[in-house]
Specification:
Length: 405
């Protein structure tokens, strides 16, 4: 079987069918592209809802029953969309239902016209809508036929003329094959380039989204930390206000007791048990002991190495203006404060408190939730008032050897 017979048998009839089926499609694509200038399809879609009055009048004028029916079918949805919301109130139905029905008709009408705009054999065909709903077919047609004048009819014409000679036919097919291969290669190259560009954009977007996520997480973390810090500060401020109110209330009571002649050394017990020592030469003489076990020494030698690390001794030897602390046993603290009294006397006020049992004392001294200098200055003032009452009075008894609990 020769090439001529093979071509005629296998391809000629196929080219005829391809010409009949595809040439009108390509023509339709090119015409729609030229008519619309590749513009958007949404406005033309909405305009489909506007009745074609001119077409309706021509159908009526020509007594074209089919045209009249088609015109009415295009008018009914528009009338329904506009008229139903106004008509339903007269039927005793809620306007919401009317608008719902109108919206449903609008959705169905738009969906129908959008579908018709993608049908190549429809008068409503629009290349923009076809590109939106059938992107793969659009890319295939536009990449292959839209921007050229190729047609299967022309190809059939070339083949028919080439059938007269096998050599000419071979040349024609070789030329067509080269053109097709060239076109396929160029189209594939454009597709791969576009795919690579889209992949690069996708990677960049993913990286940007990851960066934005990290930024947002960082902002959330900082905001959470700020809120916790603000909550802690607010809690501390509330606690500080509560302590200040308690001290003020206690101070008012003490002043009334002083005015009424009931003020005594026990009134100095503001936040914890305490002892008071008076400096005499190289010794500390205990002149008050309220609430403790009574184990504190009655006389403390400041020259003794055993007592050198005690806060009560160090606050005197260093002349510290701030309170000093020591921990004679685990979680049990003594805060010592040196006070200059009348008659050139020096007193040492010692707060005794347990860290786990007296949170208020811990907050006001160690944690310094309120400047502890204010607390000890208040104690200093009360000690001056106590001294003005003649305290301490001479006592013959000594408690040097009292036992602890």
């Amino acid at each position: 079987m020769g090439i001529k017979q093979t071509i005629g048998t296998n391809y000629h009839n196929s080219l005829i069918r391809l010409s009949e089926n595809f040439d009108p499609v390509m023509h339709r694509f090119r015409k729609s592209y030229e008519d619309t200038q590749n513009q958007g399809w949404m406005i033309p879609l909405v305009l489909k809802l506007v009745p074609d009055v001119r077409r309706m009048m021509e159908a009526v004028k020509n007594l074209d029953s089919e045209g009249i029916v088609k015109s009415l079918s295009s008018v009914i949805p528009s009338v329904g969309i506009i008229g139903i919301p106004f008509a339903v109130p007269y039927l005793g139905v809620s306007s919401v239902v009317g608008f719902g029905i109108s919206g449903l008709i609008l959705f169905i009408s738009l969906s129908r016209y959008l579908w018709l705009m993608t049908q190549l054999d429809s008068t409503h065909f629009h290349i923009g809508a076809y590109r939106f709903l059938k992107r793969r077919e659009y890319d295939l047609f536009t990449g292959s036929f839209l921007f050229s004048d190729f047609s299967f009819k022309g190809l059939l014409y070339v083949v028919n003329h080439s059938l007269n000679g096998e050599e000419e036919l071979n040349k024609t097919f070789e030329r067509l094959k080269n053109e097709f291969d060239s076109f396929t290669f160029a189209h594939q190259a454009r597709y791969e380039e576009k795919e690579s560009h889209l992949l690069k954009q996708n990677n960049e977007l993913e990286a940007e989204l990851l960066r934005q996520k990290e930024v947002i997480n960082s902002i959330i973390t900082k905001a959470d930390q700020s809120l916790h810090q603000l909550y802690d500060e607010l809690s501390e401020a509330n606690l500080s206000s509560e302590y200040m109110a308690d001290l003020l209330d206690r101070l008012i009571t003490i002043l009334y007791r002083y005015r009424n002649g009931r003020f005594s050394v026990s009134d100095l017990k503001l936040i914890a048990d305490f002892t008071i020592y008076k400096v005499e030469g190289g010794h500390l003489i205990k002149i008050a002991d309220e609430g403790t076990s009574g184990h504190s020494l009655g006389v403390i030698s400041m020259d003794s190495k055993e007592h050198a690390t005690w806060a009560a001794v160090q606050v005197v030897t260093t002349k510290s203006i701030d309170p000093l602390f020591n921990e004679p046993r685990k979680n049990y603290y003594i805060a010592s404060y040196l006070m200059r009294m009348g008659n050139n006397e020096l007193w040492v006020y010692n707060l005794h408190f347990h860290r786990d049992r007296n949170k208020k004392a811990v907050d006001l001294t160690i944690h310094d939730i309120i400047d502890n200098k204010l607390l000890f200055r208040l104690i200093h003032v009360l000690c001056l008032l106590l001294q003005s009452t003649g305290f301490p009075k001479k006592e013959e008894s000594s408690d040097d050897h009292l036992l602890s609990r």
